[in-house]
C-alpha cells in the first residue's frame, strides 16, 4: 500500500534527497550506492504494507550501519554499489514480491524485516566485533584466526548481531504487537549474521564467492528464516 498523503510523500522525498547529498559528500556511499539506497527506500514506501514503518527501518539500517562503519579503527572506505546491493537486494526482492503475491503481504512483510535484521546484525557484528579483546574463532573449526578473517566470530560480534536484530524486532513489535513474529525477527539477525560467517569461511576464504554474494546469502537467510517459521503463525 503506497502512501496516499502528498505531504508525507513530499517529506520522504526531501529526506531521500538530503540523505543522498550527505552520503555522497561525506563519502559514505559512491554515486551508484546512493542510487541503490534510494531504490530500496522508494520500494519501501511504494510496495510496503506499512510504508512509513518499512521506510523507517531502511533508514535505521543505513544510519546504524554507517555509525558502526565509522568507528575510528581505520579510515572509512565509502560503500559502493556492490556493498549496498549485497546487504539490500534480498529485502528489495521481498518488497517487490508483494506486487505479485498481495495475499501473502503480511508474511512477506515479516520476511522483509527478517532480511533487514540479518543485514544490520551482520554489519554490526563485523564492524563492532573487530574491537573484541579476544581473537576471533573460525566458525567452522573454532580455532583462533587473525582479526578480519572471513568466517571469524567473537562474543562481542555475536552480542552486536543480537543488538542489531533487537533494534529491528523492537520496531516491528511497536507496530504489530506480535510476540512470536518479533522473536523470529530478533533471531533472524543472529541466523543471517552466522550464515554470512559460515559462507565466508567455506567460500569467501577460498575465493569461490565474493563479499557481495556472501552478504546477499546472509540477508536472504534472515528473510527465509522468518518466512518459513512465519507460516506457523
Number of domains: 1
- Strand residues, percent: under 5%
Q: Portion of residues in helices?
A: over 70%
What is the total tally of β strands? 2
Category from helices, strands and their pairing: mainly alpha
| Head-to-tail CA distance between termini | 22 Å
Strand order of the largest sheet: 1-2
Q: Helical element count?
A: 8
Uncertain parts: none
Shape call: globular
The radius of gyration computed from the alpha-carbon positions, rounded to a whole number of angstroms, is 17 Å
Main sheet attributes: strand count, strand direction, barrel closure: 2 strands, antiparallel
- The average pLDDT is 85
Order of helices and strands: HHHHHEEHHH
Amino acid at each position: 500500500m503506497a502512501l496516499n498523503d502528498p505531504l508525507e510523500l513530499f517529506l520522504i522525498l526531501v529526506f531521500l534527497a538530503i540523505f543522498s547529498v550527505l552520503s555522497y559528500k561525506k563519502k559514505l556511499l559512491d554515486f551508484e550506492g546512493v542510487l541503490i539506497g534510494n531504490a530500496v527506500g522508494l520500494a519501501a514506501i511504494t510496495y510496503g504494507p506499512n510504508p512509513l514503518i518499512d521506510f523507517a527501518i531502511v533508514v535505521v539500517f543505513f544510519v546504524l550501519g554507517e555509525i558502526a562503519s565509522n568507528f575510528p579503527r581505520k579510515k572509512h572506505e565509502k560503500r559502493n554499489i556492490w556493498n549496498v546491493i549485497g546487504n539490500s537486494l534480498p529485502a528489495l526482492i521481498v518488497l517487490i514480491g508483494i506486487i505479485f503475491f498481495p495475499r501473502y503481504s503480511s508474511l512477506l512483510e515479516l520476511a522483509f524485516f527478517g532480511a533487514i535484521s540479518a543485514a544490520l546484525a551482520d554489519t554490526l557484528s563485523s564492524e563492532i566485533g573487530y574491537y573484541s579483546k579476544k581473537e576471533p574463532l573460525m566458525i567452522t573449526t573454532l580455532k583462533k584466526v587473525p582479526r578480519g578473517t572471513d568466517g571469524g566470530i567473537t562474543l562481542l560480534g555475536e552480542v552486536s548481531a543480537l543488538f542489531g536484530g533487537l533494534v529491528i524486532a523492537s520496531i516491528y513489535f511497536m507496530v504489530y504487537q506480535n510476540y512470536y513474529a518479533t522473536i523470529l525477527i530478533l533471531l533472524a539477525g543472529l541466523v543471517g549474521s552466522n550464515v554470512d560467517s559460515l559462507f565466508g569461511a567455506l567460500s569467501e576464504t577460498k575465493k569461490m564467492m565474493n563479499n557481495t554474494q556472501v552478504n546477499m546469502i546472509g540477508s536472504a537467510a534472515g528473510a527465509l528464516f522468518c518466512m518459513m517459521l512465519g507460516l506457523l503463525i
